[in-house]
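Table S4 entry, Glutathione synthetase.
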Amino acid sequence: MTSAEYFKISPTNLKILKEQAIDWALSHGLVIRTNSNSTSTTVHAPISLFPSPFPKKEFEFVLELQPIFNLLFHKLSNDHEFIEKVIGELTDVDDFVGKLYDIYSTVRKEGITQQISLGLHRSDYILHLTPNSTEVHIQQVEFNTISSSFSSLSTLTSELHKYLLESTKYFDVSPTLKLDALPKNEAMISLPKGIAKAHQLYGSESAVVLMIVQPVERNAFDQRWIEYTLMNNHKIHLMRKTLFEVQREGKLDKDTKALIIDNKEISVAYFRSGYGPNDHPTEKEWNARLLIERSKAIKCPTVAYQLVGAKKVQQVLAVPGVLERYVTNPSDVTKLRSCFAGLYPLDSSLEGEAAAKLALEHPERFVMKPQREGGGNNIYTKDIPQALTRMTLLERSSYILMDLIQPPMMGNIVVREGEVIQGEMISELGIYGIFIGGNNEDEDVVINELGGHLLRTKGRETNEGGVATGYSVIDSPLLI
């Protein structure tokens, strides 16, 4: 099925399809909270009505990459010299990174209580269309080490698309479309399975999992499915607390350093908050982060993991010779490098000055990226000259420069809050990874596996890619 065939749907059948999709979403928990602060009103999650065509070869390639990336970032998180050199340079130019680095340094000097770490990662990619060609190849956007969201709702969207295909055959617009072109997506059970394994390794049956959340969370149901799956499949209880509540109610056992909240010992501290400055409005939230990091609880992520998820690390890994220090198989190095876009520093080095000059001369070729997660932070193309001109060298140094990926356009029809939108779209594929290991890197690997996928689709004029931030819809791939 080509994306152009989606637009052959008659208005009558499109109305039927939209109503079926919305009702299925509401019936199966494929929902988000409304924009209000109400906890009792919901709306269907923003979704595509059709799966988006995606090259099977490239999809299978990024599945192959994920375990390699999982181990790479685990090794980086255990390399103090690397963190000190790469992240330490950011502490003077980025207050948020500086605060995290202070926590990292403090706990390292005190002695790390918990040697096991849990990584629930997501590596994001966009297809790049080779200039003057029809060939596409995958390029990495970023590697997320904290709060990798939408694992639950992405699985539900995959199931929605299968249901719509089975129930309507898409009105025979493309009778050759088969269910086996829609890949199985186990993200909904994979992430809770990783948390459950970490809980088991912690070694206390009476302990509970802590999910650190934001005070107001539209995407609560994606998180709730993790909570319900932990209970239904693994008989593990999960409590939700904000950083402020952790600071107010949490304490460490003076002998074991176990984290105690509401008289419950915490086995795993799973962050769905804490990835940006807005999550730390006061020192109380920072004190909570320090308390958790000092504790015996298994962290997802540790502060070291969070630091190596910085965009600066992504840029440094692209420097010849760096990747080879951590990935011993030359074939794996070649595979990883093949998905890297052009990445450049914007600091005071010769390379940084050259990159800044190039960005001013040809801004349409680039995007500037700060050390931030959550969407809405990047500076694109025509906005780059004004931003660079306004910034001091210190401010500029907190960004990296990246070649702008040029994706192929496709058509799709999406639904947001009941409104049908159709037109040219682009998609971003995320692959989840589950990793559990200790400080001895290769010798202490407990789990290193795939965790499902997420496809987000947006209008071609939209730069950012977040669903929760209102830029994208949740989609699923149709392998071609």
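The two ends are 8 Å apart (CA to CA).
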